[in-house]
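Q: Please design a sequence for this.
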């Protein structure tokens, strides 16, 4: 795993080698941009129709366990770590405007069922 830290101190861990896969690393950057509310990045990376998720103030780390891309679709298996409460496991599914453009057209997030 590799790590970056946002300006607000949130750690993002992601699979090693994403730097060799530009679209995968773009997704890491997009998650960081959502955390940082980086309007200039998001304006060019997300269509107006996308509703980005609200980010809780007590999040301290996101572990992107896996990132898969194929054509205009992508999926991420993530664990969200919080200060003083249990972690949350989610699946994030992304559709890009096209296979060749890093512009996000749709985002769906699902919480893993406890079992």
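A: Design:
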């Amino acid at each position: 795993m590799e790590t970056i830290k946002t300006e607000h101190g949130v750690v993002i861990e992601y699979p090693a080698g994403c730097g060799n896969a530009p679209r995968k690393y773009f997704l890491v950057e997009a998650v960081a941009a959502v955390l940082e509310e980086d309007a200039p990045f998001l304006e060019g990376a997300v269509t107006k129709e996308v509703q980005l998720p609200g980010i809780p103030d007590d999040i301290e780390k996101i572990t992107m366990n896996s990132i898969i891309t194929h054509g205009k679709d992508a999926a991420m298996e993530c664990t969200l770590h919080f200060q003083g409460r249990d972690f949350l496991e989610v699946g994030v599914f992304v559709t890009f405007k096209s296979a060749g453009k890093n512009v996000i057209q749709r985002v769906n997030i699902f919480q893993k069922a406890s079992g």
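Q: Thanks. Anything notable?
A: The chain has a mean pLDDT of 93. The two ends are 26 Å apart (CA to CA).
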